[in-house]
Structures are given as C-alpha cells and as structure tokens.
Amino acid sequence: MAKRKERIDRGIKVRSESIYALASWEEIAYLVGPRSLLIGGMLLMPLILLNSPYWGRVFLSVCIFACLAIAFDFLANVVGLVCLGGAFFYGVGSYASAIINTKLGLPPLLSIPLGTVSGAVICTALIYPCLPLRGIYFAIVTLMYPLLMTRVIEAADIFGGTEGFRGIDGFGSPIIESYALVAVLLLGLFALRRFLAEDPGLVIRAVKENDQSVRASGISVAWIKTQAVFIASLFGCFAGAYYVHMYKNVGISSFALDLSIMPIAAAVIGGTGLIGALIGAILLVPLSEFLRDFGTLRIVVYSLVLMGFVIFRSEGLMNYAVRKYQQFERWVEV
Amino acid sequence: MAPMIEVRGLSKHFGGVKALEQVSFDINKGDIFGIIGPNGSGKTTLINCLTGFLKPTSGTVRYLDRDITGLAPHKVARMGIARTFQIMRPYFSMPAYKNLVIPLFSPRARKIGGWRGGGKHGDRNTVAIDILEELGFERDSRVPFKTAGTLPTGYLKRLELGRCLALRPDVIICDEVFSGLSASEIASLIPLLRKLHEQGITLLMVEHRLKELFSLTNRVMALSYGEKITEGDSADVIEHPKVREAYLGSEESV
Amino acid sequence: METLIYGTVQSVSLLLMAFGFSLVYGVSRLPNFAHGALFVFSGFAAWICINKLHLPYGAAMVAAPLLAALFGVLIYQVVLRRVRGMEMSEVIATYAVGLAILEGLRWAGFRGTSYSLEPMFEGVGIYFDVPIDNQRLVVVGMGILMMAGLYVFTHMTKIGLALRGIAQDEQAAMMLGINSDVVATVALALGSALAGIGAMSLMPLGNIVVEEGYKVLIYAIAVCVVGGLGSWAGTVIAAFVLGFSQYLTVAYGKSHYQMVVMLLAVILTLIIRPSGLFGKQKQLEERV
Q1: What is residue B200's three-state secondary structure?
Q2: ipTM score here?
C-alpha cells in the first residue's frame, strides 16, 4: 500500500480562526503567544541586559543586522532583486549620518533620520541605472558597489580616507540607545509587513510575478522597483546611521564584507517573510559572537550554514516553525 | 476623420531575421480589425511593436495623431491601448479579483475613476468585482475569490480582458484570445466582445480561428513572413490568392 | 615599448585569473563565485606540498592545479548540481563556499605575509631595453600555453568538442547524446585547474595571502562581464582592454585607482551594454 504525507491544519488553529477564539484562553494564547513573545522579548531585552554591557551591545548588533537582513529579504523575495552588497546601504548611511553630525553639528536625533533618508536617496540613485539588469548582473553590480566605495574613499583620501574619522555624538544614555533602536526596528518591520499585505504591496509582488503584465497595465515597473529599493535602503542606511552613533566613529570598515554576508545568511536561514530575517539575526549574531574567539571561523560557519540552506532549498526556520505550529503531518494510505 | 491608429512602414529585424517588413495600415475608431496569418508571420511581433514591448527597427506608429513609436509599454497603456498576452500569466498566487486591482493603480485608471463612471474613488476591490461581473463572473459565487492559478482557461481569458478593462481603454488588442478555448467557450466569449465594442472600445484581434473571427470583424489584414499581403473585407481577404497560398501552399507544389 | 610589454604582462595576468571563470560560465552557465577561493587554495596547496610534504618544486606545480580540479569537482557534485538552474541560488551558494574556503584558510593559520612560492626563474632580464622579471615572462608564457592548450583541447579532443558543443547550444548538444552533467563536471574541473595554473604563474610574484582570493574573483568577474559572459573571445579581448587600462592607471595615475578602474568598467558595461563586448544577442530573448 503506497503512502503519502498529508498536512492538516491543527485543531487549535482552526478553532482560533473565527471570532469565537475570544471565548477561550487557550485559543487566545495560541494566537497571541508567539507574537507577544517576540515583541515582548525584544522590548524587555535591553532591561534584562542592563547589567552586562557586552551582551547589551550584542543585542543592539542583532537589531542592526536585523535591519540589514530585512532589507535583503524584502528586495530578494518580495521584489525579486538579489542584492549581494548590503554593506553599500550600511556604509552610505554611516558616512551620511556621520557627516551630518560632525560637519553640520546636528544632534543624533536629527542626524540619524536625515542620514538615513539622504543615504537612501543616494543609494537609490546609484542603484537606479542597474535596475533593468537580469538577476546575475544585478547581483554582480551590487557586490561591487561597496568595494568601489571603499577603494574610492581610500584612493581619493576623502572622508577621512582609510582611517575614517571620530568625534560623532553618542546617545548619552544606554536606555535611550537601546530602546530607540528596538522601537524603530519593530515599528519598521511591522509597518513594512502591513504595507505588503495591503494593496500597494500587491503591486510590488505583482512585479516579481509577472512584470510584463504590470507594464501592460499602465504601471511603470522601473518606478515600482525604485520605490522598493528606496524602502530597502531606508532600512540599510538606518542601520549604518545608528551604528556610527553607537560607536562614535566611522571608517571604511563600514563597507566590510561581513555586513553583506551576515544579513544574507540571516535572511535565508530565518526564512522569507521579513520576520524570518529578524529571527535569523537573533540566531546568527550571538552565534557569531560566541565564535569571535575563534577568529574568522565564524564566517566559515555561517557561510557553510547558508550554503546548506540554499542547497537544500530550505524554507527557512521561521516558515518551518510556523508550519509546524499551524499544521501537523501524517502518513495516509493512498 | 483621421484614423485612430496609423501604422506606416513598420519593420522589425532581429539581426538577419525580418520579423516585420514595411507593414502599413490604419485602424479607425469603432473598428473591429482582424489580423490573420500563419504561424511565424509576425503577428505577435506586430502587437509588441504597437504596444511598446519591442522597439521597431524602422517605421512609425501614430495613435490619435500622436507619435507613439518606441514608447515604453506602460506609457502606451496609459494612453488607452490595452493588450492581452497570448501566453497567459495572471498573477497566479493572488485571488482573481486582486489581479484586477493592480491595473487600477495605474495613473490612467485613477484619473478616470471608478467603473461605470460613478464614484471617483470607488473602492478598488468593489470596482474589480464589478468588472468581473461584467465579464460573466457570477457575483455571488466564490469564483472571483479563487486563486487565479486554479481557474480554468475560459475564466483566465476573461480575467485577461478584465485586466485590460480595468485600464478603461479605448483600444483593446487581443493576441489570440480564442486559443485554447472550445467552440462553446468561444461562442460565449463573442457576445462579450461585441458588448465591449458597443460600449465604444475599438478592437484589434490577432487570431487563428478564422470563422469565429470573421463573425466579429469588419476589416481584416493578412500577414505572411512579416509582410502585409492584403487588407479589406473579411470575404475578400479570405479569397485572396496570396492568403490562400500563405496558409495552404501554392498550387504548383501540390 | 615599456607600455606594450608591461601592459601585455598585466593583460595576460588578468586572462590567467579570469579564463577559468569564463570557461565554466560559457559551457554550463554556472557562475562559480568560488573561483577566487580555488585560486588561493592552489597557492596554499602548492606551498604545503613544497614545505610540508617536501615534494620537488615541479611536482607541486603540477599537483596544485590537480588538487584544485578535484576540489572543483567536489563543489559541483555537492553544491552546484543541486541548485543548477536557479541562478541566484548558484551565485549565493558558490559565493558562500568561496567565503568558507577563504576564511577557513585564514583561520587555519594562513595569515600574514610569510607564505610564498619561489619564482620559476629568478632574476631580471632586459628585453628591448625594458627591465622585466623573468617570472613575469613565465606568466606570459603560461598564458600563451594555456590558450594554445585549450584551443587544441576544444577542437581536437572528444571531450573538448563536447564542451564547445554545450557552450554553443546546450539543448542541441544534449539531443546528440552529450551528458550535460558530465560536461559540467569536466568544465568545473578544468576551470578550477585553470585557476590553479593561474595561481602557479602569478603567486610567485608576491606572497600568498587570502585577500588575493577576493581580488581574483572581482577581477575575473570584471573581465568576463566586460567581455561578455559566456564568450571566450570576449574574455581574451577584455583582458587586454582592462589590462592596459590598469597599467596606464598605475603609470599615469595613482595605483590605488587600479581596482576602481576595474569596478567602474564593470558598472559602466552593465549600464551601457550589459551583454558585454561579445555577449550573445539579447534581443532574441525578449519574452512576451
């Protein structure tokens, strides 16, 4: 007798789908539990880690990398543009924000948003000519942009050259430092998800599915992609802008390879759906810290894990977890 | 009255391959214009050149006395020329009606407003479902809400037309819209096309199903190997020796 | 004269770095982003053969490309075969492998500037009044040998002809009974071996450092993109165009700008003419 696997929604999922879920604590917990765990966890972390500044910093790194991972995931899975050089957004945001802070003397409250937006404009402008390119060519170009930035800064010795420059303001208080970041990250993440679930997000997904059809419907695909790149740049540049105010210096290391690879690994391992990117960052960044003592072994590890996930076409941990949470499998006879 | 669409000397070469060579014709407002020709005669290339998906090697296309040669596809669509695709690819993962919501985002649809002229900012979902109803999707059924990937061909063809209608076009170019349909499905599609025509839409139809096509069209053009061989009344065109030769081969070779 | 000689040396160097990548992509449309890693791997492999296994110089020079070829086959079988056809997955997977190799080598202790290979021929000769390291002449020699060898291989051996066949039209070749999988394996082995040969020629000019791996990958991609991904003739021409550009940048500008020139060349090519100098016609691929 041949058997096949069957996936069925769990009872509790079906019961929690209608409004009657409100009648049962169990079902409310089922629905609300994971989300509140994530959000609550993120919001409480800074307090929990208040007494160990090292792990506090690690947590902030998680948030920073989560921003980059979200940018990658959004571009790759929603728009269909695989960007191998996330460090580009990060670096441009860093320098923009640093310059606004030091040369224009604006406080972090202004230099971060302004740095983010101006950085995003610059990144979008530079990526715009590359938008019509086919997948692999776009990937190559985005891979090269951070390197180009590094070499140009080095060669022309501008913006502090190889050394970079210091003297950027901090936040004045670790609590503000942490909570501002977590708040913006969570708000940005959920705003983006909401946006994608509504009709404007539909148009962006349509571009990925069938761009010729979108063109025939009178919508400029180039403009949609530009807007998408702008949104992703906002996330990436914000990460860079925030980081320089945390560590109070900026240099060409802002375009480092690590910053391109780790977000890709986080997004692939965590799974598509933007929240997966966050989960991936939560897993990978601390792992990377543990392995910091072993030198570059950490890069080896997450490269191999990334490779494994790509080869075996895994749906990502987040999607796997969601599926298990909502459905169960059993063998049935055919 | 000036023709609505004026094509002069349209040519498209791919390296050495002459897909279109010096094609010229006019389409007047209110026509149902047919384009026929055997496979490989350049019909789809012609549509692509008209609608901006390909840049012609030479020649001009004028619409309402404006030169639209080589204009980008989305700009052509915004001027009011909609087209269907021969190989249908709806947005498979979305429900059927959502497929129509996307064109409703285009600047033209937004400017012209809701369907049936009522409600400038009609809710897009409602407008989409209204359009589907016009096309024969029963309003109270679950069909408009089914994922597009699960719909049968007949419905998908109507969905394609719906995508065009959402643009509130003045011209619809149908690329082999009858292909893949059974005779009865075509028979139910023809009145729909007539109705659209009566509402003022000019139709340009590329087709292989000649009998069904001729029941709609008032003028027909025949292509062969990228060149126009004749144009005129359906009856005249089908009797034209060159057309018979193109489809059936010449007398000598038999 | 100086320009001609040094420019040629630089061009052939680029060719040695790039041709392996071009071959693999041209034959099987597989972007092997681990190419740079294989280059560096060969260098270290040779070093280990000479300094740890105490093999003679010549044996190491032969062994290293062979080991690289084996590694290439391994990469194909384990990684590429499973993601073949999904372009972006190929890129990410091979890039990840390359990273793992490079950083793994770095972690394993191959850091700093203490590793080097001896040049094949020491000393400096003077030709046409231009001083030039003998090793650089070896580079040019190897380049010419490589191209000649490849020409013979692809025109006169059965496997070589199969490679060319698949490069020109994969489906037709498959219909003639050529196994695409086997050909891809051969291509990857050959491409990796070429990376190894390139390493054997070029590494003696400096030290073996992991950073070279990233540089070689970028240069290889640059040359192939400018020449047209998939076109072997294009790769050769592009190598010369870029090689001379690089030399002129160093001679008349700042040497720091070398890499910038390469990167700008890539970006400009992709924006103005994405198919490169000799890339296959794009128009026929319009799909509506």
Answers
A1: coil
A2: 0.84
**pLDDT for residue B118 is more than 50:** no
Domain count, chain A: 1
Q: What are phi and psi of A310, to 5 degrees?
A: -70, -45
Interface touch A147/C97, C-beta < 8 Å: no
Q: What pLDDT was estimated at residue A90?
A: 92
Q: Does C270 touch chain A (CB under 8 A)?
A: yes
- Give the C-alpha separation, B20 to A287, whole Å: 61
Strands A3-9 and A327-333: antiparallel
Residue C116 in domain: no
- The enclosing H or E element of A269 equals helix A258-270
**How confident is residue C281, by pLDDT bands cut at 50, 70 and 90?**
very low
Q: Quick one: pLDDT band at residue C280, thresholds 50, 70, 90?
A: low
Cα B23 to Cα B11: distance, rounded to the nearest angstrom: 7
Given A136, A144, A299, which is nearest C218 (Cβ)?
Answer: A144
Q: What are the CA-CA distances from residue C252 to residues A286, B210, C256, C259 (Å)?
A: 48, 70, 12, 15
Please report which confidence band the pLDDT of residue A301 belongs to, taking 50, 70 and 90 as the band edges: confident
Domains of chain C: total: 1
Q: What CATH number did the domain enclosing C151 receive?
A: 1.10.3470
- For the record, the structure tokens of A279 come out as 């989960």
Q: Above pLDDT 70, what percent of chain C?
A: 94
Chain B residues with CB within 8 Å of chain A CB: 51, 53, 72-74, 77-78, 82-83, 85, 89-94, 98, 101-103, 105-109, 124, 163, 166-167
Torsion angles phi and psi, residue A296, rounded to 5: -80, 10
Where do the domains of chain B lie? 1-79+210-254
Residues spanned by the domain of C157:
2-108+132-279
| Domain range for A93 | 3-333
- Spell out the alpha helix ranges (H) of A74-210: 87-102, 108-127, 135-156, 174-197, 199-209
Task: Let me know if residue C37 belongs to a domain.
Answer: yes
What residues does A249 pair with on adjacent strands? Answer: A166
Which among A82, A141, A299 has the least Cβ separation from residue C267? Answer: A141
**What does pTM read for this prediction?**
0.87
Q: Backbone phi, then psi, for B247, in 5-degree steps?
A: -80, -40
User: Could you tell me what percentage of chain B is helix, strand and coil, using 3-state DSSP and rounding each to the nearest 5?
Assistant: 40, 25, 35
Residue C89, φ and ψ in degrees, nearest 5: -65, -35
Smallest Cβ–Cβ distance between C286 and the set B15, B54, B85 belongs to B54
Per CATH, the number for B1-79+210-254 is 3.40.50.300
Tell me what pLDDT residue C246 has: 87
CA–CA separation, B222 vs B23, rounded Å? 11
Which stretch of DSSP H or E encloses residue C26?
A: helix C2-28
Q: Are A86 and A264 in contact (CB under 8 A)?
A: yes
Phi, psi (degrees; rounded to nearest 5) at C217: -60, -45
Alpha helices for chain B (secondary structure H) = 43-51, 73-78, 96-101, 107-112, 124-134, 153-165, 183-198, 210-214, 234-239, 241-248
Confidence of residue A32 (pLDDT cuts 50, 70, 90): confident
* Whole-Å CA distances, C60 to B181, C116, C140: 68, 13, 20
Residues of A in contact with B83 (CB under 8 A): 216
Taking only the tens place, the pLDDT of each residue in C108-152 is 877 777 777 777 767 777 777 777 777 788 888 888 888 888 888
* A84, two tokens: 């191998």
Structure tokens at A222: 């180039």
- Tell me, what CATH number does A305's domain have? 1.10.3470
Share of chain A above pLDDT 70, in %: 100
Asked whether A252 and A164 are in contact (CB, 8 A), the reply is yes
Contact A299 C288 (CB under 8 A): no
